[in-house]
Amino acid sequence: MKDIYIADLANFEEGKLFNGFFLVLAKQQRTTKNNKPYLNLILGDKTGQLEGRVWELGDPRIAKDFDRGDIVKARGSASRFDDRLQMKIDQLRKANTSEVDKADLMPSTTYDVDDLWRRLLGFIDSFTDADLKLLLTTMLADPTVAGAYREAPAAKQLHHAWLGGLLEHVISLLTLADRVAPHYPILHRDLLLTGVILHDIGKVYELSWEIGFEYTVEGSLLGHIQMGTALAEKTIDSLPNFPPKLKTLVLHMILSHHGKLEFGSPKLPMIPEALALSFIDDLDAKMQAIQVEFDKCIREGKGPDEMTGKVWALDQRQLLNTKRWLEAGGK
Amino acid sequence: MKDIYIADLANFEEGKLFNGFFLVLAKQQRTTKNNKPYLNLILGDKTGQLEGRVWELGDPRIAKDFDRGDIVKARGSASRFDDRLQMKIDQLRKANTSEVDKADLMPSTTYDVDDLWRRLLGFIDSFTDADLKLLLTTMLADPTVAGAYREAPAAKQLHHAWLGGLLEHVISLLTLADRVAPHYPILHRDLLLTGVILHDIGKVYELSWEIGFEYTVEGSLLGHIQMGTALAEKTIDSLPNFPPKLKTLVLHMILSHHGKLEFGSPKLPMIPEALALSFIDDLDAKMQAIQVEFDKCIREGKGPDEMTGKVWALDQRQLLNTKRWLEAGGK
Amino acid sequence: MKDIYIADLANFEEGKLFNGFFLVLAKQQRTTKNNKPYLNLILGDKTGQLEGRVWELGDPRIAKDFDRGDIVKARGSASRFDDRLQMKIDQLRKANTSEVDKADLMPSTTYDVDDLWRRLLGFIDSFTDADLKLLLTTMLADPTVAGAYREAPAAKQLHHAWLGGLLEHVISLLTLADRVAPHYPILHRDLLLTGVILHDIGKVYELSWEIGFEYTVEGSLLGHIQMGTALAEKTIDSLPNFPPKLKTLVLHMILSHHGKLEFGSPKLPMIPEALALSFIDDLDAKMQAIQVEFDKCIREGKGPDEMTGKVWALDQRQLLNTKRWLEAGGK
Amino acid sequence: MKDIYIADLANFEEGKLFNGFFLVLAKQQRTTKNNKPYLNLILGDKTGQLEGRVWELGDPRIAKDFDRGDIVKARGSASRFDDRLQMKIDQLRKANTSEVDKADLMPSTTYDVDDLWRRLLGFIDSFTDADLKLLLTTMLADPTVAGAYREAPAAKQLHHAWLGGLLEHVISLLTLADRVAPHYPILHRDLLLTGVILHDIGKVYELSWEIGFEYTVEGSLLGHIQMGTALAEKTIDSLPNFPPKLKTLVLHMILSHHGKLEFGSPKLPMIPEALALSFIDDLDAKMQAIQVEFDKCIREGKGPDEMTGKVWALDQRQLLNTKRWLEAGGK
Amino acid sequence: MKDIYIADLANFEEGKLFNGFFLVLAKQQRTTKNNKPYLNLILGDKTGQLEGRVWELGDPRIAKDFDRGDIVKARGSASRFDDRLQMKIDQLRKANTSEVDKADLMPSTTYDVDDLWRRLLGFIDSFTDADLKLLLTTMLADPTVAGAYREAPAAKQLHHAWLGGLLEHVISLLTLADRVAPHYPILHRDLLLTGVILHDIGKVYELSWEIGFEYTVEGSLLGHIQMGTALAEKTIDSLPNFPPKLKTLVLHMILSHHGKLEFGSPKLPMIPEALALSFIDDLDAKMQAIQVEFDKCIREGKGPDEMTGKVWALDQRQLLNTKRWLEAGGK
Amino acid sequence: MKDIYIADLANFEEGKLFNGFFLVLAKQQRTTKNNKPYLNLILGDKTGQLEGRVWELGDPRIAKDFDRGDIVKARGSASRFDDRLQMKIDQLRKANTSEVDKADLMPSTTYDVDDLWRRLLGFIDSFTDADLKLLLTTMLADPTVAGAYREAPAAKQLHHAWLGGLLEHVISLLTLADRVAPHYPILHRDLLLTGVILHDIGKVYELSWEIGFEYTVEGSLLGHIQMGTALAEKTIDSLPNFPPKLKTLVLHMILSHHGKLEFGSPKLPMIPEALALSFIDDLDAKMQAIQVEFDKCIREGKGPDEMTGKVWALDQRQLLNTKRWLEAGGK
Description:
The structure is a homohexamer.
Chain A: H1 6-9, E1 17-31, E2 37-45, E3 48-54, E4 71-81, E5 84-94, H2 113-125, H3 130-141, H4 143-151, H5 165-180, H6 189-198, H7 203-206, E6 207-208, E7 214-215, H8 217-237, H9 244-255, H10 272-299, H11 322-328
Helix pairs in contact in A: 2-5, 5-6, 5-10, 6-9, 6-10, 8-9
């Protein structure tokens, strides 16, 4: 396990030494205005990323053989410059993957992925619609798809932006959908849950998460909605007796799940299940983004009377942590 | 019970006689282009409203002493003119309220109101927050408020637009909120449920439902958001020890429940409970509007392959009844 | 050939007899307010559609065995009621398909479809990119696809809304694209032309044009963008060596061709060819809609100083026929 | 009176010494990238705010016992770094409130507040409507309300963002309203003037202005529109015979004064007085913001041909000072 | 003076005879569905317009020699058909212009135009800026311009849509501007008043008001903003010493007076005078539209508790007549 | 010719000396936080602009007599500070205009202006409409207009933002328009080409390009649409027999060419030529902006898999260079 995380450095006394493992997200040689050359690095771990500078390039304690994508062990101290935190690094060597858990270097779910996966399969197992069950079982039996599904983040940065975030988001949604479905008799439960499981599956192609989270070129040009629809269609077409109407409905669930044309859905929800999916997907993403902000406020030492920073996923609104505010009032 | 309803007339053979009780929503004397005078009426019952004409004004079987707001018994036949249905009335007399159940004359909930009310009180009884429980108990102990809450429609025409619709909508929301709350630990369940119970309470002042559903002048100028907030504030201020922070949160729930400024909320949701309320309120209203459209399609004899008419509450979108479509396909 | 067209009736002297073949688009029995039953029909041919009424239901000259979708021969006279034209029909019999050219009953292109098709193949033949040429050749070699492509309208009502309209629109666009492409060296001509040929191909599934132009249920739920993308992807996947990058680009051309998210494209144009396609597609549709309006003005006898009616495809704007206006001024 | 103001420093020769009183708006200890610790302060006075740095922390001339919210006397020199002005402070001591006029430390109205207040009471005195006169007299007789009304800024930063700004804005509006009202006979003058006096009264609760101008938590969650409406309603309800219709109209004036839903008014103006109020309120705020920009241009030495910077309150537009531009042209 | 006006017919007992002068706005021969030919007319006078029908074409009391644009004397009775009022005409003859005051046939200002004109000249006379005074004097000395200015309506239908409406609107605005200008010292009074006088002067070319109010083709293609700017520029260019800066400012006043790009102003107000003009122009138009609606409610017999119909100029909002509502409450 | 360009410095090794001619776009004296005074300059040439600093103010090798707008020869080295490039200058002297080609100091077209001009005249020569030919010949015979037309940039920064950019953009558009016009028979070719030539002619007054590209005050207040329309109108009015209808059409072409009200066109295109002009103008501007971005990517060493930066003219979209991406894939 890592000893020190980037999030910890925020509260670090300036000048105090740290020593830890990081992923190199960017590396660039630069010169100060006094013509002093230095290395500028972006180092990341699962808690965030930070700029670091190496001033003594010739120092033998500074490795020369590392590059973007490598894991390094770096020693230094944090300093603040114009309100921006920065690391001054005095020792740095390339590390190998056995020294550190990769999960510590990229933000990743705090849940047990195997357990999440079992719960996913459990939901599928509960289906009464044999066609939908077969579709999902077939798709997730493909080890490439299953492997990527277990690893993928749910987004580049908005919500569940960590390894395993897609799966975590889907499990949360399945639980919620399973509570909402019986409340409205017009809802076809298995179709709704199928929509939940497939709605973001295109993200396994849209995003790459080797070194940070990036869009692939194909992802930029086609988008996860098209990529997911295509994967679903290909799998369905491989099943000899899949009912054509059900195919249309499954594809419509994926196509329409953003709920608005301007959010990139080419079709608006036109069946009750698609409408319900677009609502709970949006709610879950926002609730999770709020949770992250509340955690961040506590980590950064903000008081209970202070609202969060502006939340991107909520149109730059600032939120108040109800429970914490009430408790601080002695209630 | 009424023998014949306006909705039934849609499928009536033209010329066939009907005979039933209706509420007079409008009454006007007019003349044809051939100078023949006639009476033009708008008659309503719980299933809708229809234009009716009385051609033989001097006929002794046609009463002269009735007016807007009266209940009448009318006999006649339906005819269609340019795709618009119309009643030709040949007998009409004023009825008294003992002859017909008022619930048959105005659209009203199909649920048992006493039962809905018991469930509402049951939810309040389940609160662990004593202040919120006291607030709601106090407010609903006022017989004027309670009486109006049991009767009010939830909207003039968009969703739950019938007597008891407000209560029905709130019970649906409470059930849903009670399922959603435990899913997100940051949610204060009792505050969320309080928001559900109070969010539309201003409608008991915004709308009148004596003869059809109309906005009061005060309702037009102030709106149910302000009226509900004021009622909540007045009740809270009558409770000696209600925590000021909790007051702010309760009022914020009401103020922000439309979720968008352009929908008339003066504040956007800034606490997780308000965000969740705005989502489930919107979802429940839309699901109910869809249910009404699906029922209407079946009543009007549309086939399973036909989409609904354009749904106002869903931006004029047309919807497909998933289950019915699949079943028609032999699935 | 038909003797009389619906468009001709607009200028018909009222009461004068016509006698012609029409397609029955709708049929309904109704009753006047005086309880007189009559048949209400919507009759169509290639120039438009018109309401017709049969008053003498018992008349032996009025057939009883016809239905929606049938071709009939009808005799009657036109009349105008409240500015709306209507046919009064006194003779009507079912016709058989040999009596009339089906192309006369549905609006259809005025171009020779075989010639348009030859020009389409000619453009494909001119490609220097072998992969794209193979893709298009393969796709259009499928007789079902080719048959539908030759028949499909380009839209339900906005532009090129007639049989063969899709092909006519594509040929116009190919000609235009072929002139634009050499003007911008960054454009990949064959990719641009491929985009032109495929951009609306999903309409062969989205629309049905048996009796009038309607959306299929599948078309409503999935849309021609998804349907066309899926067809292209399936064909590409059947070609063993199609370059993956080229596949991404072809699919992106189809996905993005509406140019705006709010017009139903899930992706905005991100390559120069897609941008150019979205521009010329929009321009061609609008120019064609203007041409139709100008023709209509002349047919309806409007003067050169009068602007057109409000053009739907141009946001309800009214246009002026430049050349005609100038000529009327003696210039 | 202060000798030197922050606005003066903008034109200060770099390096020249200043010595003056300031309010400490923020205080933070930091370290340079060379590990040198320093104090970072935000100092303010009525003309603005500026960053200041204390480099010699151990210097006995630098006090240790001051904090955010304190008044200090500081000596130093200004410097410019990357276009940003900064103070280097070499002496600093805590001052007491008797040494400096608090009005010099926070931006505040240049008008005499007592005089503004007298004019406000004079307008109320001129009312012919006894109910409205009683309402306002009662409300402003409350010393807490009156005290806050005299001090409050009109906004956090958009317009009249200074102590006494609310009162100054209201007096300007009253004068304007009194000129506009007789121009339109449909306007109820006293109702319009009542709306002017009450429209922003909620700001006395929405904002805090102890140390800089901030939103209170309650202000963020409820907003000044709700807070002002509630205060008005409570005062009205304390008056035994206030006409209910007049109450509705007064509350509507406050609720609708932003003129658009998207600006946070839950109701659009539906009476002529509310419409007129929303217009003159908006005009006055914009004219005042323009005046501030014109003054700033002159203070910063901009020429008459130069337009202002982008004005936030005018959608980032730049404006030209008409009179100054014309005069510069010799006219 | 006319005996009977179209507005009076709204409250006419059906069948009662009227006899009056009207302007023929449209004339068309039609046939009923029973093949009975009739004349369909649109007749207008200063209070509105109404459809009229002549059933007895051969009747010698019905003139044959009249056409669109003629004045006629018509006798008949009003009837209501499907809520739409209609005139049945049994006598009709062409009238000559001496029989009726043309001002009775087109809606026109209720003010004395000569008096309005004197007030306009009075305002110009009060200018201290000699250049602006010369500009306006020169422009209004042109008898064509002055004649059209006195007659033109201010709009086709939104506000002041009557003969003399432009002048009436301008005088109202001048009075208002003269009250607002001294309130803001940054305003150049004469420039503001010049803007008021010229802002809509292009309407004398944009609209024709010979027979009803219509856009000219040139007006449709260029618009009154461009036409007014061009007229101002041409006049200025004819004045040898007009200051160039002042010319820019005057043109900017006209160009920007709609206040928003989407309302057809190619430039947003960038000087205080232009901003003020756009506000008072909008306010005056809306106040006048409200006045018209209030008058209409009284004329149509609506009660004081009823809101107006949906007002086009106020985004389809409904308004309440404050004073009338309060008075009805005994206040 | 210049030896070194600002664009070259981007890839310069830090510390390496350069020595070249630049235009001084801004000059300011400042002080570091250590009270060291220095000169801050913005230097530009045809490839861009860069901040430069002179640290040794007393050094005799640094001239004292230069100012904004002067050409200087400067020697120094580039350094990077916080990702921003900066020049450190150690020698600087005023240069005279004979030492350097002014075209090297401002970005300017890479085409031969004389040749572009000949092509412009060639297009005019090809007109069959004598009136339009005379209009353009007359206007371009004015040496002031012609001189400015040859020099003006097409925009301040969006597209063709370089000397000669307007002419280059117009020639590109003429070529394109000449290909599009024959494709649509309703288009009046000479009117379309006239629109192309005149649409942006107002930019010769709206922009100044002496030292960088700026809006003139007149340009800011009136805009190039008004300025171009006025120039066209004045020229037309000087031609005795120019047909009035043609004048309306020409002015409409200029007024409506932005295609949308919110882009500053006071009229939407209402003739086919205006619609076509707005499309090809927009397309050409965007294609050119893409070309510039693609060139920049290659210059900055981006790989073929990398998308461009966010393109302002394309709503901040990132684009992919199709041809380069395909080629990199071996295709």
